[in-house]
Design brief:
alpha+beta, six-stranded mixed sheet, 22% helix
Length: 157
Amino acid sequence: MAKKYWLFKSEPGCYSIDDLKKCKNSTDHWDGVRNYQARNMLRDDIKKDDEVFFYYSNAKPMGVAGVCTVVKNGYPDHTAEDPDSEHPDPKHTKNNPIWYMVDVKFKEKFNDIVTLKEIKETSGLEEMVLTQRGSRLSIQPVKKKEWDIILKMAKKK
């Protein structure tokens, strides 16, 4: 199966790339996704060894902060069963899982964030899901060509 590329959004005040790096083995689960389209990607499409841009949303500046790698395929999000978690869902149970997560491992933090503004102004990224009007999904596919352009932008900083 060919490697795929993704963009996962997080608010840096909630969970940052530095938080991921500090985890045991720089690995953690990506939990709390409560959108059905994003859930389907976590459950069905995102696989071990896929690469992920760690994107800061609701931040100044918004943009790609670094890279992580998927190290475990999708599995039921146990935080949905925890009433004290930030994203509980009483309809989600062990016998009827609704929400899914994957495990990711820190790979690289960029020297500087590749900002959303820079991404929108860069040739070759016009069709990127992130740049589309109304695009709000917390999990988004990234084409290999887009991946390569953003990595090149990060290396120039």
